[in-house]
C-alpha cells in the first residue's frame, strides 16, 4: 500500500493549489494522510475528490467549516500499521516521550504544525512523522512531503523535496 503524507498546505494563502508533483503522488497513492492546516474547504473537497482514500484532521488555522468535517485526531490501520494523525504535538523537546504516553496504541503518529520534517522513534517504538509542508517551507530549505510503503505491519518512509517549476 502506497501512502502520501502531507500537512500544512495553507491554501489559498500560501499556494493557490498543491504543486503538480504532489498531485501526481495523490494519483499514485492508495491513501493520503493530511495532518491539518488546510485553511480552505476547497483544499479538502478537491483532495477528497481525487484521493482513493483520505485520512485528515483539522489544524489550528482551520475554521469552522473544516472543523465540522474533520476530527482533531484521526486513526486508521493501513497495511497492518496502526496510524494516528494530529496537527499539533507541542514543543520538540520531549515530544517522543509525551506522544508515546498519549498514543500508546498506535505504531505511527503523523503530525504537522511546525513545517519541519521529522522522523524519529520513541522508546516504546512509536514512530513520529512530520512531512513538513509542500507549499509553505517557512525557514526550511525546501518544500517537502513524505511517501510511505506499508505492508504486513512494516513501513518504509521517504522524504521528498518539491522540485522547483522549470
Structural notes for this entry:
The protein has about 170 residues and is of the alpha/beta class. It has one domain: Metallo-dependent phosphatases (Purple Acid Phosphatase, chain A, domain 2). Helix content is about 20%, strand content about 30%. The protein contains four helices and ten strands; from the N terminus they run βαβαβαββαβββββ. It has a five-stranded mixed beta sheet with strand order 3-2-1-9-10, with helices on one face. A hairpin with a 2-residue loop joins strand 4 and strand 5. The longest helix has 10 residues. The relative contact order is 0.21. The model has no long low-confidence stretch (mean pLDDT about 95).
Main sheet attributes: strand count, strand direction, barrel closure: 5 strands, mixed
User: Which percent range describes the beta-strand content?
Assistant: 25-35%
- Tell me the distance between the termini: 31 Å
Helix-strand topology string: EHEHEHEEHEEEEE
Q: Helix count, per DSSP?
A: 4
Helix content: 10-25%
Quaternary state, please? single chain
In spatial order, strands of the major sheet run 3-2-1-9-10
CATH top level is: Alpha Beta
- Give the second-level CATH assignment, the architecture: 4-Layer Sandwich
How many β-strand stretches? 10
Could you tell me the radius of gyration in angstroms? 15 Å
- What's the mean pLDDT score? 95
CATH homologous superfamily title: Metallo-dependent phosphatases
| CATH topological fold name | Purple Acid Phosphatase, chain A, domain 2
Can you tell me the number of structural domains? Answer: 1
Family: Belongs to the metallophosphoesterase superfamily. YfcE family.
Keywords: Metal-binding
InterPro entries: Calcineurin-like_PHP_lpxH, Metallo-depent_PP-like, Phosphodiesterase_MJ0936/Vps29
EC number: 3.1.4.-
Amino acid at each position: 500500500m502506497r501512502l502520501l503524507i502531507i500537512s500544512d498546505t495553507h491554501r489559498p494563502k500560501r499556494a493557490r493549489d498543491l504543486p503538480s508533483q504532489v498531485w501526481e503522488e495523490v494519483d499514485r497513492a492508495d491513501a493520503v494522510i493530511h495532518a491539518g492546516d488546510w485553511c480552505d474547504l476547497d483544499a479538502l473537497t478537491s483532495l477528497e475528490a481525487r484521493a482513493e482514500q483520505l485520512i485528515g484532521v483539522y489544524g489550528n488555522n482551520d475554521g469552522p467549516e473544516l472543523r465540522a468535517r474533520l476530527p482533531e485526531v484521526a486513526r486508521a490501520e493501513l497495511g497492518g500499521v496502526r496510524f494516528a494523525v494530529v496537527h499539533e504535538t507541542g514543543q520538540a523537546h520531549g515530544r517522543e516521550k509525551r506522544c508515546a504516553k498519549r498514543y500508546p496504541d498506535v505504531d505511527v503518529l503523523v503530525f504537522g504544525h511546525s513545517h519541519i520534517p521529522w522522523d524519529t522513534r520513541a522508546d516504546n517504538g512509536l514512530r513520529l512523522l512530520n512531512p513538513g509542508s509542500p507549499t509553505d517551507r517557512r525557514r526550511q530549505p525546501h518544500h517537502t512531503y513524505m511517501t510511505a510503503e506499508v505492508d504486513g505491519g512494516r513501513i518504509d518512509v521517504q522524504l521528498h523535496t518539491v522540485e522547483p517549476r522549470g
